[in-house]
Design goal:
heterodimer, A: mainly alpha, ABC transporter involved in vitamin B12 uptake, BtuC, two-stranded antiparallel ribbon, 2 strands, globular, B: mainly alpha, 2 domains, 3% strand, disordered C terminus
Chain lengths: 306, 368
């Protein structure tokens, strides 16, 4: 029981960065913009957050810097993909390659430094619930932030006027524009939200998960998050389940090794990526279903009047 | 007020001017960057762009780095022309290196002229196998190829790490994760005696020629282009989209696999964990920069090969982080895409007009 509780708690921790970045991308994709630059934005968030926390001594300053870095990166993408109507695939790839390089360049001086990252804060009463209390209510502040972000995104999409506008633009920007909606502005905001969340997810890695900075420390999580959004068929409720599922896959090798299962670290380290492909297969084999759920204008540049 | 206005016809001048403009902007940004971090910009840019190619060994080294980029880019061009977003060249490359290494170690006690071709062929098959997984997932299970190829890249990397730490590890290698040195008969011959430049560059140039023939002279190339421009039109014309998709992926896998095989049998001579400094990813930039054209990708692969060597020189000469290479590559692609917008659009200066912006744009001539 003790072991199970710990594994579940570790699953939530491992799933948190995926949940954060995927929530941002979900909003972005619902507006019709596919941003493949998640990995680059996360890395910039991670390095900016770590550098700011290290030099200011405040984790909150670190988190703020990470979010700003993510937003700044996403605005570069928005300029290319929304204003200049560039190919979104290419622009997203450019963002990832650029972000990987820039973060490694800026972070070169921080490799080897360490800070005291976020520590666990138990929520009174709730954390006393057997098993679930430890799993969900005895975590660090950023995990709680991810719960709030999930609730906000889910409620926003389902119940708010803004959510309706966002979905309308993602389905048919032409019609939305004809109805007087500011398509480009909304898309900018959606992309920036995605950038902020990716930055926050990066901060989670460098300030909580492993409080240090190493090159490429995201290890493909930005890409897994993109798969996660497809897996969740663009719905937040499925997204949170998927994030913890992927979280579990990514710590499975630690669990197995903990249980004394002898296998190569490298082979076990493949698991999250293999699981991602299997999930994509499960979700995509029926193209009609994918078509039904995908925002109609996803990935297509739109310029009013052209 | 600046206004983007759609050109009536896409600008062919801009299509080729854009990469040059992007390079100029990258150099200017680099200049500013050197100033900001307090290094001599002229010196820095000289180390980066001029020093590497100022003598014969330097040029040979450039050719050495060009070979894998050109091979990977040639294969990716075939995919991207058909708008198949294969990001998996890195994985194909690693599997090529892995396959070739397994065969080379198996044949380490054998000599004969056939050893090298067999080793290279195993590498090609390794790359094709990895690409075939992505192709099958795409054509039969409708999985997005971007995500599957990226995941396959990570899986290939871990597989390679497993093999150099395990089955293929040199028992007398002092515990280093690396294979034994390959036998002489499994090594690529040098192109220029006394340098490290090997036959791999010739493979790359041949691949570029093949790409040119494919798209300028063959029906398959034409079909691939049509798929890229209008998927539905290709289906209506009765093109076998599924087979063509497989063809593009397998070509991509084969060339990148050959690149990986050439790398382990060429300059390295054994399997090591760091067999690729990201050639497969950089090749994506080569394809875009080279305008998906045979001549273009040759020039672009030379430029990006230079960024690898220039980065190494800056690291030694000016104590810059190695990441300066990735930074330059990222900037270049970034500026390229920005400049590419002006292939289809032009800037028009407009006095702040009272009419709504959408109406002003709508009045602009439509593309024909």
């Amino acid at each position: 029981m003790e072991l199970l509780t710990n594994v579940l708690a570790a699953t939530v921790v491992a799933g948190t960065p995926l949940l954060l970045v995927a929530l941002g991308e979900l909003i972005c994709e619902r507006s019709g913009v596919l941003n493949l630059g998640q990995e680059g934005m996360m890395l910039m968030g991670a390095v900016a957050g770590f550098a700011a926390a290290l030099s200011s001594g405040s984790l909150l300053v670190g988190v703020a810097a990470a979010i700003m870095a993510g937003i700044a990166m996403s605005l570069l993408f928005a300029f290319m993909a929304v204003t200049l109507a560039a190919n979104q695939y290419a622009a997203g790839l450019a963002l990832t390659i650029f972000g990987t390089g820039l973060s490694a360049f800026l972070g070169a001086g921080f490799v080897g430094s360490s800070i005291d990252g976020f520590s666990r804060v138990a929520i009174p009463l709730l954390s006393d619930i057997p098993v679930l209390g430890r799993v969900f209510f005895d975590q660090d502040a950023l995990v709680y932030t991810s719960f709030i972000a999930f609730a906000v995104v889910a409620l926003f999409l389902r119940y708010s006027r803004g959510g309706l506008l966002l979905r309308a633009i993602g389905e048919d920007p032409e019609a939305a524009n004809a109805n007087g909606l500011k398509v480009l502005l909304v898309r900018y905001l959606a992309v920036a939200f995605g950038g902020g969340m990716a930055g926050l997810a990066g901060a989670y890695l460098s300030l909580a998960y492993t409080p240090l900075w190493t090159e490429n420390m995201t290890a493909g999580r930005g890409w897994i998050a993109l798969a996660l959004v497809v897996f969740a068929t663009w719905r937040p409720e499925r997204l949170i389940l998927g994030a913890y599922l992927f979280g579990a896959a990514s710590i499975l090798h630690l669990v197995l090794q903990g249980l004394g299962w002898k296998s190569s670290t490298e082979l076990l380290a493949m698991l999250p990526y293999v699981v991602t492909i299997l999930m994509l297969v499960l979700l995509s084999w029926n193209p009609a279903r994918t078509r039904l759920n995908t925002p109609l204008s996803l990935g297509q540049p739109y310029r009013p009047g052209s | 007020m600046l206004l983007l206005e759609r050109r009536p016809v896409a600008s062919s001048v801009m299509r080729w001017a854009s990469p040059l403009l992007a390079l100029v902007l990258t150099v200017i940004t680099g200049f500013i960057l050197f100033l900001v971090i307090g290094k001599d910009p002229v010196e820095g840019l000289k180390f980066f762009f001029i020093t590497p190619i100022s003598d014969l060994p330097g040029l040979a080294e450039l050719g050495l780095k060009m070979a894998p980029l050109l091979l990977c880019a040639a294969g990716l061009t075939v995919c991207y022309k058909a708008k198949l977003w294969n990001i998996g060249a890195e994985g194909h490359f690693l599997m090529g290196a892995l396959g070739a290494s397994v065969m080379a170690v198996q044949l380490s006690a054998v000599s004969g002229f056939w050893v090298l071709p067999v080793v290279l062929l195993t590498g090609v098959l390794g790359g094709m196998f990895w690409a075939a997984i992505a192709a099958g997932l795409k054509t039969h299970l409708h999985c997005n190829e971007i995500l599957t190829t990226i995941m396959l890249n990570y899986i290939a990397l871990n597989l390679l790490l497993y093999v150099v730490h395990g089955p293929l590890k040199d028992p007398y290698g002092f515990g280093f994760p690396q294979s034994i040195m390959f036998a002489e008969s499994a090594l690529l011959p040098a192109l220029i005696e006394g340098t490290r430049l090997h036959l791999g560059l010739a493979f790359g140039l041949l691949a570029a020629v093949a790409v040119w023939v494919l798209f300028a002279r063959s029906f398959i190339g034409f079909q691939l282009s049509v798929i890229g421009q209008d998927h539905r039109a290709a289906a209506f014309a009765g093109f076998r989209v599924r087979q063509l998709t497989w063809f593009a992926f397998l070509v991509g896998g084969a060339t990148a696999g050959l690149a990986g095989a050439s790398e382990v049998t060429g300059p390295i001579g054994q399997l090591v964990p760091q067999v690729s400094p990201g050639y497969g990813y950089t090749a994506i930039i080569v394809v875009f920069l080279g305008r998906m054209h045979a001549v273009g990708i040759v020039a672009a692969s030379a430029l990006l090969a230079l960024t690898f060597i220039g980065g190494e020189i800056l690291q030694i000469a000016m104590q810059m982080p190695k990441a300066v290479t990735a930074l330059f590559q990222g900037l270049l692609l970034f500026y390229l895409l920005t400049c590419d917008a002006f292939i289809h659009y032009r800037i028009r200066l407009k006095k702040a007009a009272p009419q709504p912006r959408s109406a002003a744009v709508a009045a602009a001539p439509q593309e024909v």
